[in-house]
Please model this.
Amino acid sequence: MNILAIGPHPDDIEIGCAGTLIKYAQRGHSVFLLLISKGEMGGETEVRYKEQMNAADIIGAKDVFWGGFRDTELLDQGNEIIHTIEAYIKKIQPDFIFVNFFDDTHQDHRTVNRSVLSAARYVRNVMFYEVPTTNNFTPNIFVDIGSVFELKLEALKAHSSQVMKTNIPDLSIIDIARSSAHFRGVQGRIPLAEGFIPERLFITID
Amino acid sequence: MNILAIGPHPDDIEIGCAGTLIKYAQRGHSVFLLLISKGEMGGETEVRYKEQMNAADIIGAKDVFWGGFRDTELLDQGNEIIHTIEAYIKKIQPDFIFVNFFDDTHQDHRTVNRSVLSAARYVRNVMFYEVPTTNNFTPNIFVDIGSVFELKLEALKAHSSQVMKTNIPDLSIIDIARSSAHFRGVQGRIPLAEGFIPERLFITID
Amino acid sequence: MNILAIGPHPDDIEIGCAGTLIKYAQRGHSVFLLLISKGEMGGETEVRYKEQMNAADIIGAKDVFWGGFRDTELLDQGNEIIHTIEAYIKKIQPDFIFVNFFDDTHQDHRTVNRSVLSAARYVRNVMFYEVPTTNNFTPNIFVDIGSVFELKLEALKAHSSQVMKTNIPDLSIIDIARSSAHFRGVQGRIPLAEGFIPERLFITID
Amino acid sequence: MNILAIGPHPDDIEIGCAGTLIKYAQRGHSVFLLLISKGEMGGETEVRYKEQMNAADIIGAKDVFWGGFRDTELLDQGNEIIHTIEAYIKKIQPDFIFVNFFDDTHQDHRTVNRSVLSAARYVRNVMFYEVPTTNNFTPNIFVDIGSVFELKLEALKAHSSQVMKTNIPDLSIIDIARSSAHFRGVQGRIPLAEGFIPERLFITID
Amino acid sequence: MNILAIGPHPDDIEIGCAGTLIKYAQRGHSVFLLLISKGEMGGETEVRYKEQMNAADIIGAKDVFWGGFRDTELLDQGNEIIHTIEAYIKKIQPDFIFVNFFDDTHQDHRTVNRSVLSAARYVRNVMFYEVPTTNNFTPNIFVDIGSVFELKLEALKAHSSQVMKTNIPDLSIIDIARSSAHFRGVQGRIPLAEGFIPERLFITID
Amino acid sequence: MNILAIGPHPDDIEIGCAGTLIKYAQRGHSVFLLLISKGEMGGETEVRYKEQMNAADIIGAKDVFWGGFRDTELLDQGNEIIHTIEAYIKKIQPDFIFVNFFDDTHQDHRTVNRSVLSAARYVRNVMFYEVPTTNNFTPNIFVDIGSVFELKLEALKAHSSQVMKTNIPDLSIIDIARSSAHFRGVQGRIPLAEGFIPERLFITID
Model:
């Protein structure tokens, strides 16, 4: 299968669904990443680009695409973003799309979610992941990431310029990822999980 | 895998998820049905029992269990129903449970849904199906039932005493099943589907 | 009374509420249609214009207005669209407005809904209809369209360039309309219905 | 038409929908009241009975029925209450049912609402009204009660033993009724209104 | 503490939370107002400016800031508005922000709410207030405004050009404020209250 | 102030709000605990009683009350439970009540929440906490428990017979508490928090 994960900025995909993507890649599926912006408000563009490429290597992604929009400036460009994502969907033909959830305090995140909702309207499976700025997220789809959790943390550490940028004193994104994985795990009755909300998901019976 | 479908009355399971169950049975999974009541307010107990057993045969179910509660009298016996369902879960060890949705105009349906929510709290996958009395059902999980749709209709026709008991003049449960399958199909972008809302669903990646 | 139905593209109004509009027109009320775009991404502008005009004739509409915005480009022009709709509301003085529902995978649909919410804020009755791309629609207002259902299908067939453009193999918009009418009918306990969600509706007692 | 208003205790109906009922009665429709309990925890049974009968006279109700259940004891008797209400529905054959909303801090209110949801499942129009203990009520159906507002207050005053029993110092149920009518009026853009949430409502076009 | 109240137009803040702000000012906290537009569609800019400054004096606000955006034109400028609000937050360092609720029929109101959600994402306490165009507002946070209610009305009367501009015949914003305060009071079990929905609120225990 | 925390079984209160209660007790407020059942399905009654009393000591509670209902048997006794809680509220006169959230897979938890909703309807502040079986919990009220977190863990460890009874292999309730505190902390932008949903909360301004 072709799996496409979409994130507004570098590191969003890793926080939300790196464990799931690693499992897909390990089973031989083709994982693609699409970053809508380069996250230039959170650090040097060059640095963030390299960090994202390293994280993609750890995940085992087949390719990384860049939307080319400007960090924190996505809000009033929704239509152009939709058309950009539509082009990548046409090219990649994904069976599964993962993107951040709609309800979020960051305007770029809200815009990217709505853009994917539109652009992906004929894609079979569309799933929403969470990041630390997500609001009111109550996942009912779970993936057990116990076997790949350390790799997920490696993918996060690849974003080394961002690890301590959590706006919470002494708390790293690694700490946040660990707590989230346990918290969602408990909801799924296992030690470590990623949680998702489906826009549309098919159960394949065989 | 072991699949357990639970219904308040005979024919509820067939309306809500017979297509999905047939597909599971066809792939060699073990499908079990649990009927909480015998539906004695809707017809002769004997008749309804036989109809349900015939429907189970068409589905390819391995066994049918009966909770023994009285039709239209479930509402204030929730606790006892929970304990009964817990016993069957212990016996069957299901990987998947299917049960009708909570929001429903029929009191028995509301009770059975809440009872399963409690009894199944350590079962991995729990999914809610819809019937004609369900309210506010907005499925985001779909199963393509195109290949088994005629068999689903056969399973419904097995409930021959109920086929015209829809409380809508000249409309049979077959007509309703056909419209629902098309309607949910359109939402899933395919011709014929059953729709579900997950209480909790694991994606297995392999 | 003056009834105003608003649609993002040609054929949206017919899918969502043609049956209701036909009944209003048959009783002598004045029905007006406002199309925000010409639907030029779905076919020749000329063709779609004529199809819409023919559909309006079948409905018995008194007049058809065109907003003049570009198909798939509505998203970031919400403010201008509001002002356009306000002008038509001022001109028509509608007692009832019908418009597609907010939650929809198509960006144009979301924009038109929000624009009407604002533009119509002093209009007495505002009702939301559904189309195939609508999400999470749980209608609690129903209109019995049994007596005008064939006419509704005629109005849909007038959009002949669109009849097979459903993105679902072998499924026409006629098939979809038929399933929807049955499905919503069942919810209202009648054979054929259109379902609505009210933003604001007055019951007139006399 | 036959209109049936159902209340858990004397005065609930008057608070929630007396204005609407008065308008129906004035136009010649047959209004019936069904009180599930006699409200004996809020005063002398005899007194409350007489007050309710006087209020019914002011409303212009054709008949008043009493369910015979005990005030504050409804919660675990839902099934029997459903069967009682079903019997009255069979007798009265109502076109419209009005009952208090589900989300309420009073257990009797929650029970009565759910009981009506079940008992009325084949009644065409079912509408929910609000009382001071209702929670999270966001009405989208409105009735202009300007012409009958003073009569509504008379019907409330008939419950003279209850007028000051609001649990809020110096605030009478008359004061509450006045504020509610204005508050809901503003939401409907008129001076005085009653607001409702529909479980199911048909628009009749003629 | 520093309290920042944000409103799309002059008089929105007074309607939604003047009572609460007056109480904060009376206890010696620093209250700041930020008006995103001058409300020039509702009257002379000069007049509205003076009215707002007078209202601020009555509230006891320490300073008033103006965002400089155009009334009814906020919708497609969300990103610029976010950056403007971020600048004021940086300057004022508020402990509490009050802003109108998201669900509203006025496009400017929706935009301002979403802009504050983003701009204030690292502010500790963010609370939403209601105005007459707000929809679906179900407050669960209350402030008793009994002791400052007359002052709140004075602050509203300072907007003398707006007092009768309610779009409801013979109803002033003073009447609306009075009904709202009683209605929300009843929900909080006191005579007069302002109601809020928290985006994020800390309880300080000492 | 008088603070009353209510839990269906021993250890629910500690999991949900021990940190907050400890802070109240440390500031000299009177904290009371009410346990609806003795949790006899989860261990020896004697043992669980002692563990709860020890936990109450660590919290600094002034007194502990026991409702006397049977573990896993609360569901169909809602009315009696309401009357029991009403009696304790009358006795304690609490300013604040804390109780578990409604949406929960455990039937006892749902019953206790609804019972408190009714019994506490004239209590000023009522707040809902979460436990591991809670569903769809999206807190917007936070308490910083950084200074008392170790004490909270002590209170949990006092329930030594329960520490490993999480139904998740190798995961203790201490682990769960730690992850929850971090997870909710991140949502409140601090390292360690308890999160709540308010039924009704007053802001006191002074």
